[in-house]
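pasting for the record
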Amino acid sequence: MYEFEEDMDLIQPLYYRMSPETETVILSRKLKDGMVVMLEDPESRIEAWADDDEMDTDWVNRDMNVLSRWCRVTDLTPTLHGMAFVGVYADGFMAARLASPAEGWIVKKDSITEETE
């Protein structure tokens, strides 16, 4: 199983640029259990603000921690509107995620194994 790297529990930059050497991009319909992913579209992620006073709502903080970090796909289930899965994060946090069919995901290549292909 792919091991989370040391900085993968950190909130990633809004305009994170994928690394072609270690990452690839797929659409939601190709997600598999065990893949380590992050949303590809920066418009779907939430930026980490330098000023903690701006993060005065719990939902902004939660969404930023869910949408702007790497997670492992578990319990992947097709739905009428795409895919649903439980994202497991490097720090153990878990969140239910919904993925529309056209949504892109950055995937750590090392997390793609025979079981996930």
